[in-house]
From TrEMBL:
Organism: Aromatoleum petrolei
Ranges in coiled-coil conformation: none
Any Pfam family matching the protein: SBP_bac_3
The name this protein goes by in its record: Transporter substrate-binding domain-containing protein
PANTHER family: MEMBRANE-BOUND LYTIC MUREIN TRANSGLYCOSYLASE F
Signal peptide per UniProt: 1-21
Entry keywords, A to Z: Signal
Length: 284
């Protein structure tokens, strides 16, 4: 699942509409087969580069874990890589209109999407992590959240998860948090955690890993809530060869150890990703 709030999605919707309205005029015509890609000499993918460290913009360029994998794929095909940075809402419609060869951004695998789009093997996973200040020795496990001030991003996937967790605490221990604070963005959660406004922050694992890398020794984790959500790339449902190519390349990278190396580079440690059974019932 892509950990972006509905608020953010709504704001991006109008942008996506505007961008996709311009797409036909740009004359893109991608998708099909590997032969098509090699004939064009160009692998064109759609990306929303706003989800660090998976894919994000740095010094005007799209970089990140996904970018490294894509460069390997383009090299394998012997073609140029063109990574289009578009709003998330425009990616799957653009794929169906064959504006690019596949979607290479962190798309959450859901039952509904999997019935319409050809998901690759997972490239990532998101956990809703519970973080505290490293100096706070009084909170050691999720159950210690009773009577504490907890916060997360408003409208995020983490919000219902932490609300469910509080209901579990109330059922087992008779009481829940002192307060649940909701913030506009995850950076606000980090600031509140740093200045002591919050005792516990609920943050996506990838966001937290970036923050902990930039501020080593400031935060530590005490556990997670809810179920992790797998992230994958998406091919056109009529392009099975392209999905197979993505999956075969990921498998090669995994077997060679290169994928774990990239995960350590961008996330600080290898990701625990399933290689089978990751698609829900009824998936393409």
């Amino acid at each position: 699942m892509k950990m972006i709030s509905s608020r953010r999605r709504a704001m991006q919707g109008a942008i996506a509409f505007a961008v996709m309205a311009c797409v036909p005029a740009m004359g893109w015509a991608e998708g099909g087969s590997l032969t098509d890609i090699k004939k064009r000499g160009q692998l064109t993918v759609g990306t929303e580069a706003a989800y660090e460290p998976y894919e994000f913009v740095e010094d005007g360029k799209v970089v990140g874990y996904g970018r490294d994998i894509l460069e390997h794929m383009a090299g394998k095909l012997g073609v140029k890589l063109v990574q289009l940075n578009l709003p998330f809402q425009g990616l799957l419609p653009g794929l169906m209109s064959r504006k690019f060869d596949f979607v290479a951004t962190s798309v959450g695998i859901t039952e509904e999407r999997a019935k319409r789009f050809a998901f690759s093997a997972p490239v990532g996973i998101v956990h809703s992590m519970l973080a505290v200040k490293a100096s706070n020795g009084a909170i050691a496990k999720p159950e210690d959240a009773v009577g504490k001030t907890v916060g997360t991003q408003m409208g995020s996937m983490a919000q219902p998860m932490i609300q469910d967790f509080e209901r579990e605490l109330k059922a087992k221990q008779g009481k829940g948090f002192a307060e649940l604070k909701l913030f506009q963005g995850y950076p606000d959660v980090g600031v509140a955690l740093s200045n002591g406004t919050l005792d516990i922050g609920v943050v996506p694992s990838n966001v937290l890993s970036v923050q902990m890398r930039r501020q080593p020794g400031v935060f530590r984790t005490i556990g997670e809530v809810g179920q992790p959500r797998l992230l994958a790339w998406v091919a056109h449902p009529q392009d099975p060869e392209i999905r197979t190519f993505i999956n075969q390349t990921l498998a090669e990278l995994r077997e060679s150890g290169k994928l774990a190396e990239l995960q350590k580079k961008w996330f600080g440690a290898p990701l625990d990703l399933p290689t089978t059974g990751y698609l829900p019932a009824g998936a393409l």
